[in-house]
Amino acid sequence: MLIAGFPAGAFQTNCYVVAPAAGEECVIVDPGQDAAEGVDDLLREHRLKPVAVILTHGHLDHVWSVAPVCGARDVPAWIHPDDRHLLSDPGAGFSRESAALFGGLTFSEPDDVRELTDGAVLELAGLELVVDHTPGHTRGSVSFRLPSDDVMFSGDLLFAGSIGRTDLPGGDYPTILRSLATKCLPLPDDTVVLPGHGPQTTIGRERATNPYLKEAAPHAGPTRGI
Question: Which residues does the UniProt record annotate as the domain Metallo-beta-lactamase (predicted)?
Fold first, then answer.
């Protein structure tokens, strides 16, 4: 398994490329601000051919470069339908004051956009990626798991020592606690968590030290409708 990444742009959003091995096909996860050059560098370094871009959610810092990256390689982008509108209207994911900062910028969908569903298994680039719908940060937030390798791309659901913010449009604190309880807490302790920002961690480390996972634990029983 080859996983390589870098923090992109002013937001330092982690962008990853994932492949069975060097010299093979790959997927790209969350190409954020000014990520195209970094992606190209990783593709050349590891001799990779991308077949898709997969997006953990629609916030601008995670999708900024999705259209140029997809367009340059003629590959589709995958996103949950509840966040698809953010590809062409990223300001809808921010407060009115914050959205004004991006008023002079124009964004559009890639030519080929495909929609994710909870529990789907994406068979891409020789990988099997399980899609977990994990709302709370946004309505369409998802995480991606590689069960065969105990790896989780958590987006802005779970960070080392923290979780994603819930004060932007589409965010909801009780909902993110349910997502943590139902999608993170059941995973093995040695599951490696590759988050949207900051360093990697493990489920075991977060279970033991992350106060938000401790708060989420009572929600780990039967889930309510989201």
Answer: 12-197
